[in-house]
Design a protein that fits this description.
alpha+beta; five-stranded mixed sheet; 5 helices; 42% helix; 18% strand
Length: 180
């Protein structure tokens, strides 16, 4: 079901929300996750974004999640499987008060090239305000074209994000990657 695209001004509280989610994941499932990273637009200071926290978690192997699914459900995370990306396990979490989407959890096995790609993209936007500004313009353009369809919005900006991510990955010396 398509969801509307609502971009809002950056909220400095997003970093604290992400940290709270990360702490809860480690507390309820000690030893399951290695690093858990805040990524996506809410992780870029000053960048307008949909107010949904994206987290990227690393696990030793994806099979480790099978035993953790109940604990994740207890924290409000809904299992979505690969959701179109081989090698990823994806979860969504809605705000318990409003029922609106609040967070996404993307889980990859340690060493998956998608991890480096996501983090290189995030770090490039953090380090290069001009690139972040260009992304803000692309996001606004795509939101104007697809205000009621978040999937079409994501597809609209895919070529832009793929190009910048590929450059960012090359810049940190990672040669292979997958699309996100």
């Amino acid at each position: 079901m398509p969801r509307p695209v609502v971009l809002v001004a950056h909220d400095p509280a997003w970093a604290a929300r992400a940290e709270g989610l990360i702490v809860s994941l480690h507390a309820v499932m000690p030893g399951v996750f290695g690093a858990v990273h805040h990524m996506g637009s809410t992780a870029i200071p000053g960048l307008a974004a949909k107010p949904v926290i994206d987290l990227l978690a690393e696990v030793e192997g994806l099979e480790a999640l099978e035993g953790a699914r109940g604990a994740l459900a207890g924290l409000g995370w809904r299992w979505r499987g690969e959701n179109g990306l081989a090698g990823r396990r994806y979860f969504t979490r809605n705000d318990p008060e409003t029922g609106t989407r609040a967070a996404h959890l993307h889980v990859y096995a340690s060493g998956d090239p998608a991890i480096a790609r996501h983090l290189a993209f995030r770090d490039r936007l953090r380090a290069e305000p001009a690139t972040a500004d260009a992304y803000a313009q692309e996001k606004a353009r795509c939101a104007a074209l697809h205000p009621d369809d978040s999937a079409a919005y994501a597809a609209c900006k895919q070529a832009w994000t793929d190009g910048v991510a590929a450059e960012a990955v090359r810049g940190v010396g990672v040669r292979s990657y997958v699309r996100f």
